[in-house]
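Chapter summary example.
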Amino acid sequence: EARFRAHPLTLMEAQAKALSLPLRRIVFPEDCDDYKKLYVDGIRSLKQEHGIEVIVTGDMDYVGTMKRNWIEECAECVSVDAYLPLWKADRQSVLRQVIQERFHVIFSCVKSPYF
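The structure predicted for these 115 residues follows.
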């Protein structure tokens, strides 16, 4: 069982169920020294098994010291496009729209020191 998940597994399961999609998890062994290879292999498997051509993510900005978006970088390795509709979007505008549209929001991964 993995010790870290970017988002709670129960939330990811609920999203997959609501969209009638299978949930694919990539579990990294504790002694893993090549996370990118496993991630790329996971995307490759999705492409081969399900014919995906695009991965959509809600990422808004870089994480930590990364110079590129992780999903975009990994997907590129297997000729899968990454669609990042919120990338570099104005956070205040996005928040106003979310409130206006009356979205039910669950924060699952928030950059410190904000929380």
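To summarize the output: The chain is about 35% helix and 5% strand.
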